[in-house]
Amino acid sequence: MSVDLATVKRVARLARLAVSEEEANRMVGELNGIINFVEQLSEVDVTGVEPMTSVTPMAMRKRTDAVTDGDKADDIVANAPETDRNFFLVPKVVE
Fold this sequence. Notes:
There is one protein chain. The protein has a domain at 5-42: Histone, subunit A, CATH 1.10.20. Helix content is 38%, strand content 4%. It is built from three helices and two strands. The protein has helices spanning 5-14, 21-42, 73-76, and strands at residues 83-84, 87-88.
């Protein structure tokens, strides 16, 4: 796969980028270089290689997944103009 000048101009237009003719010609070479590098990476045999998120093994710290009400209902509605039993009262909008 390769990128031509028309593709660069079309992508620039879609991205709403002002690109001069000189910049577009330079980008053709740069984008083709990037695509060639990605194609080289796809040729590497990675069978049996575990995916990793870090170069050093580490366990993720996780909090317990517990459902709580937070005990902050009074704080949440404290600044509301009108409330009723920890619920916000708003004007009726549908008739």
